[in-house]
Prior knowledge:
Elements: H1 2-18, E1 23-30, E2 34-36, E3 41-45, E4 54-62, E5 70-78, E6 84-92, E7 109-119, E8 127-133, E9 146-148, E10 150-159
Amino acid sequence: MIKIRFLILLFLSIALVSCDDKQVFDQYKTVSGSWEQTEYMHFVIPELDSIQTYNLFINIRNDNAYRYSNLFLISEMRFPNGKVVKDTLEYQMALPDGTWLGTGFTDLKENKLWYKENVSFTEKGEYTFVLQHAMRKNGEISGIYSLEGITDIGFRIESSQNP
C-alpha cells in the first residue's frame, strides 16, 4: 500500500513539474571546462507567431567553481534584416554571504535570468541570439579569459499571455 501511494505521489510530482504551458523555446549549450572570453553562444530562434508577445530569459547553470557573486554578459539579438541590438548585462549570482542564488539541490545551481519582456518577432526570417561573457576583476582593464564554474548557458522564450 505504501509503495502504491509513493508511486502515485511520484507520478503526480513528475506530471506537475513537466507541465510548462508557456515554454516556446528552451535550448542549452554546454561549456566544456571553462567559458572562454572569445567563445560566443549562438541560439537560432525558430519562426514565431508575429502577433504574440514573448518573455525572453537567459539560463545559466553554475557550480561551486564559479568564484564571483555576479556575472557580466554581452548579448546580441540579430534580426533577419541585419539589424543587431547589443546589450551589456549584469546579473547577481550570489548573496553577500556567498549563498548561491538559483535553484538546485546539489552544488549545481540553475538561474533563470530576465532578459526582455513583451517582445514581438514581427520580421519574417531567422533571428539569432548570441551571448558572450564580459567578466573582469575589479581594477583590471583586461577581462578574464577563462571563466570557470559556468557549466551550461541557455536561452528560453515563453509566451507572455496565459495559455
